Amino acid sequence: MPALPNEPVSELSNKANDFLEYLEVEKGSSPLTIRNYRHYLNRFTEWLQKEGIRLELRDINPEVVRQYRVYLSRIIVGRPPARRASGSERTLSRKTQGYHVIALRSFLRWLIKNDFKVMSPDKIDLPKISDRQVKFLSGDQVDRLLNAPSLSTIQGKRDKAILEMLFSTGLRVSELVGLDQDKVDLNRREFGVVGKGGRARVVFLSQRATKWLEDYLRERSDKFKPLFIRHKGKIDPTTDHENVRLTARSIQRIIKKYAEKMKLPVDVTPHVLRHSFATDLLMAGADLRSVQEMLGHKNVSTTQIYTHVTHKHLREIHESFHGKGGSR
């Protein structure tokens, strides 16, 4: 594995690269995870160099980490268009700062596991993040979005199948675009996916989503393996399968187009449909553990971001029925 860029060979850089190889080989982390950890650790070592701090493991101490976190909180990352007129600048979000800290803690934990004398990662607190706000569509909004595509073209039938499938399964967009036709059992209405962290799970299709997927596939006369492909322009039947596969960005644009067409008040993304899938299940009475399994979450704590929805639902039931049975 190549060395962390822009830094001289040192004990710190050597061990950082050993850690990245550990993530790749032993942990089986995704290329994206490894890329992100490389970026976070590189930022740390570049800061150490800039501050004139030696790149030795023993030089990582609570005071150095404290100064580094101050630096992270002051990094200017540009201004979004809405703020450019006012001249206000945007710094790293607390969530992004947290990712940097998590990477450093993971690195220190790996060092301790391998008998290196370094500061305890437990001395580094994670930044407090405000409760995550979950965006999801109401039942009426879901219906409007799912009915937005025109069914007079193969693109429209494809888009209809995509929308129905996302809402039916709660798939991540990366999982959806990676599907091949021969991996989806339409008779059993199920298929397997390998999600984040290499976790495999079985995904189930609703009868409605299965119908629209079958309608779309019947329209196709090609021999390409991907479940969802591009249809614009003339496509050489001998082209590589991966060259016709829809990308995650393409799916995002498709959903955005239909959300704008239906004038939905929510900025709809593939993940909003995933949230809508989860909240729909919970509102109907599904238990949190089952929803966790269907979403492919490693920990149920991740799934608990949806509990505010069920709490609201329970409040409505309480207000509607409590005290109306004739007793107090």
Description:
By secondary structure, this protein is mostly helical. It folds into 2 domains: 113 residues, Tyrosine recombinase, N-terminal domain (DNA polymerase, domain 1), CATH 1.10.150; 181 residues, hpI Integrase, Chain A (Orthogonal Bundle), CATH 1.10.443.10. It has a 3-stranded antiparallel sheet with strand order 3-4-5, with no helix packed on it. Strands 1-2 form a two-stranded antiparallel sheet. About 2% of the residues have low confidence. It holds the Pfam family Phage_integrase. It is found in: Cytoplasm. This is Tyrosine recombinase XerC. One of its GO terms (molecular function) is DNA binding.
Oligomer: single chain
In round numbers, the mean pLDDT is 86
Specify the overall morphology.
globular
| β-strand number | 5
Structural class by sheet pairing and helices: mainly alpha
What is the CATH C level class of the largest domain, in words?
Mainly Alpha
Beta-strand content bin: 5-15%
Nearest-angstrom radius of gyration?
A: 24 Å
Give the distance, in angstroms, between the N- and C-terminal Cα atoms. 70 Å
Give me the CATH architecture of the largest domain, please: Orthogonal Bundle
Tally of domains: 2
CATH superfamily of the largest domain: Intergrase catalytic core
Write down the secondary-structure element order. Answer: HHHEHEHHHHEEEHHHHHHH
Q: Flag low-confidence runs.
A: 81-86
Question: Main sheet: which strands, in order across?
Answer: 3-4-5
CATH topology of the largest domain: hpI Integrase, Chain A
* Sheet with most strands: 3 strands, antiparallel
Q: Helix share of residues? A: 40-55%
The number of helical runs is 15
